[in-house]
């Protein structure tokens, strides 16, 4: 069937193209989503840049057309013939040690034999790549030796240089021959290819041996040994030996040149179950949730740089058996593992975003730090799985999960079943209970603080974003939970309005929080050079302040340093008291400044008293109408007080003047309320 006919039928809503002959047809750039090409012959077909979402290629036959196989055969024969010539020349070169009575040819022959033996040893042990590098080094040595030979006109020097050069060329010839033998094995049946190519090499080599009157049995034996070495290297590369991986890669690329092409095609949710994919180009194709179950010769396709590049993953996709296998830290985004046996498999640090894990058996699987955003785990088995720090989101599907219990940590000698959930060993999850426990609450953002929280900076950042979100949506973000992860690490979950993009909110938070924190740390480090306060205390103080019990009440007591209160005119003999919200100087204040301060004491006290009384009244009113038991509830009350201050310009002015006149400590002492420390941390920045 011609491509135009297929496109016309597709436009007429026909989708069934099973068992059709589409050899050599071009569908480049066409949209054939949902079409069924099962059991079709698509050898040599061009699907470059085509849209083939949800299309079926079950048991389809991809690969090379016959004319391309013939071309590949001819090229391989020619290459093998040339290699045979070089093999025979190598044999004649070595045979000179027996067939010549002159000293120079014998020296020449012995040098060549030693170099070739060394090269063969390197090839067998480390692969042709290392041998080629060694040959290059020998070629460089040849250049130096040739220069010496020409300068000294020494026959021995020239013989040495020429022997090294020919031996190096011989090694490279073996490499080239091996690569094309593999290409031929990929293109046609392996047994026939090997037999035929080796026969051609032997024929040409034998012809040259006969052509030389000085030929000997040793030369023939050496030629045969060289050809066998090339055949062995070809077989080794074809089996996937990493020492000769480049040969196999080059051979597959050569064989796929005229084969079926899915280059840059969109194969999302396509089905290749049982398809033959030899000599198929899959580079840069979108292979999200594509099914490769029971495919044939997938290892002989050109895979590109996505998950198909891994040999163990190709086997996993074909066999659906991954029990006890290690897949740590691989990029498997969009992989289709539906119904796969992954019992006791390890996916530590693995990317499984948008993966299809429906009906997968993940019993006791290690999903530690595994990314599962957008993954579908419908009806998957998760009993006994280790889910420490796994990454799920609202897009992760946990429908009808089969899970009796899970572990929040990896096991060790002291804790073989660490942090089991449910904690009661006699109890298992009820149906649907695990999904409710694990599923991330919609419209929430998890802010993760690994090295402690600077609560003052956090509250300022949260308040600024809170005001902005309210102005845009009419709703306020709310802190839902504060979870202590231990060692100073915390996770704060913020519920945002439905209209707010969660990722954008998180990005804006860190864009504000981190620069503010860095600026604050720079100020502390600068001041530490003038005091006994060590810079190492910054991290210690921050972690000390992140104790969940009473954390908000003490959030700014130890780490806030009011640098603006330091008299910078004369600091000789000054002493600083660092630890509260202030820095004191013992002396060096001018008499005029002291006199002015003394005259303003009464006015300052009056301003502080008036502002403190109004704040006291606000705190009392809100505390009576709102609970203040938990840290979250206290922060809500304090945030409301700050909102009312911000929205009341006269009161805001009083607070600012009071803070400037008497300082934070004086203002704090004038307010008698349990939440005064929390409030001071938030309104201190008003100055």
Q: Outline of this structure?
A:
By secondary structure, the protein is mainly alpha-helical.
Keywords:
mainly alpha; two-stranded antiparallel ribbon; Pectate Lyase C-like; 687 residues; single chain; 18 helices; 3-stranded antiparallel β-sheet
Number of strands: 5
Number of helices: 18
Radius of gyration, taken over Cα atoms and rounded to an integer in Å: 38 Å
How many domains? The number is: 5
Form type: elongated
N-to-C span: 80 Å
Pick out the low-confidence regions. Answer: 531-535, 543-602
Order of helices and strands: HHHHHHHHHEEHEHEEHHHHHHH
Which band does the percent of strand residues land in?
under 5%
Structural description of this entry:
The structure is a single chain. The protein is mainly alpha-helical. Helix content is 48%, strand content 4%. It has 18 helices and five strands. It has a three-stranded antiparallel β-sheet. Strands 1-2 form a two-stranded antiparallel ribbon. It is elongated. About 9% of the residues have low confidence.
Note the topology:
Blueprint: H1 3-11, H2 66-99, H3 103-126, H4 128-152, H5 155-187, H6 190-211, H7 217-238, H8 245-255, H9 311-319, E1 406-407, E2 420-421, H10 433-438, E3 444-449, H11 455-473, E4 478-486, E5 489-495, H12 502-528, H13 537-544, H14 591-599, H15 601-625, H16 631-646, H17 649-669, H18 676-683
